[in-house]
Amino acid sequence: MKRRIAILGSTGSIGTQALDVMEQHPEKFETEILTAANNWQLLAKQAIKFKPNCVVIANENHYIDLKEALKDYPIKVYAGADSLKHVVEYDSIDIVLTAVVGYSGLIPTLNALEHHKMVALANKETLVAAGELVIQTSRQNNAPIIPVDSEHSAIFQCLMGEQGNDIEKILLTASGGPFRGKNREFLEKATKEQALKHPNWHMGAKVTIDSASLMNKGLETIEAMHLFSVPVEKIEVLIHPQSLIHSGVQFEDGSVKVQMGMPDMRLPIQYALGFPCRLKSNFPKIDFFSLNGLTFEKPDLNNFPNLAIAMHAAKQGGNMPCTMNAANEVAVKKFLDGNIGFLQMSNLIEKTINKMSFIANPTLNDIIETHKQATELAETINY
Questions:
Q1: Burial of 141 (0-12, 13-18, 19+ CB in 10 A)
Q2: Reduced to 3 states, what is the DSSP secondary structure of residue 67?
Q3: Quick check: bond before 362 cis, omega within 30?
Q4: 45 phi/psi in degrees, rounded to 5
Q5: pLDDT, tens digit, 9 for 90 and up, residues 259-288
Q6: Which residues pair with 170 in a beta bridge?
Q7: 273-327 per-position pLDDT tens digit
Q8: How many CB atoms sit inside 10 A of residue 12's CB?
Q9: What is the model's pTM?
């Protein structure tokens, strides 16, 4: 039977690549729901091509335009955050791919899990903001989470068949981003255009800036901590500029398993949607005879303090990762808007964390309020 897929964030980088994967396997997948935040024009084109049951535009200001564009098609059109939350409840959905950017993915992901849906998770901020709640909800409702981030997909694959074997260390690889090896003098003058030129991956603006600052690896450390039930002390970040080893696991006997592949997000997307089966693809494959070597470095925490900030937040737990995540979202937006410099993002995040109240065991309402307060606080910090 075909798997019926809901893609939350179908117009973004992950969403468009997911549709590419599904188009290559029409016998395996069927499009049930497509959603977007603002890009109603592309959403309309996708809907006409893939014929979902319904579409959702989160920004209600675009509802009339989207409705008009799809008036000749039997596709339901909804708008707003509440609609985004509730469409994942459809009985017709087999897998919800959460590919929206940032904190906005939390509520619909939780609701999908509460309604026993398998979630292909490409939104790391969901686990950063409320990891314990999300994992608890997944277990209580027997609703599996299959990671889509290339690193977590790699770890997930390495753990297949290893039930009962204790993890000694998770090896979380990072490309180092566009600023790998740059000194503080360079980073003080770094521009948005420079930060958006990732050497290996084609991603959205937010995750690309996070990669440049190493915050992305900090967020992924927290995500791995929750997904694989390991303390942050058992996660080691390795800078691997070639981006061919996507991550690995070291076991107690000293054996190491790693997963390799070309830096192509369609690979982990296809693995998640097809799990537990591997589907044939025409994606580029590694030519081992053309490789010039695989290298590894320790991350530079002095010039890229965001990784250290995230690790500290992970150790503290509670609502601190949520605070950090909210402050980072504001910092990235301010940098992209040209309002702060590259290094000032770290300062903004630290100042926000220091001014926020700590809650050791937050409820969902606490998480929602923490995100709101931290966002408002971060917006007021000036330089």
A1: middle
A2: helix
A3: no
A4: -65, -40
A5: 999 999 999 999 999 999 999 999 999 999
A6: 235, 249
A7: 999 999 999 999 999 999 989 999 999 999 999 999 999 999 999 999 999 999 9
A8: 23
A9: 0.94
